[in-house]
Amino acid sequence: MDPTNALFSNEPAPYMKCYEARNILIEEWSDEYHRTPFLSLVDLDKLISLPIFQFGLILKSKMLNDAEKVLLKRKRQQAKKNVATELLRKKNREQDHLLEESVRVLEEKREVLLRTKEELIEEIAHYQNEDM
């Protein structure tokens, strides 16, 4: 069967995968063509007319290359996120430590104030007893 006819037949053959891959190339890579040219639309048309095996090898090579780039980019982004997350955790631990220290100091001050209040109440009671 002619590859062109197979593209539009009901056969789910490698040709349909080829056609789908061509659409993916057109949609995703034509957006990036101005920045990093891979294929122009004319090149895509020429490429689609190649025997399916050759097209598959070229497509597989390009897709693997792109996939490796995407994975590397994701790894870098994840590493940056991990560093940022670790820095944030470290900062949060420091803030938690400062808050705990502040709470401890405030509790000590509260205890001192309560003791002072009790002592003052006792002194007032003592002076009231002396006055009577």
UniProtKB/TrEMBL annotation:
Residues 74-130 form a coiled coil. Keywords: Coiled coil. This is BZIP domain-containing protein.
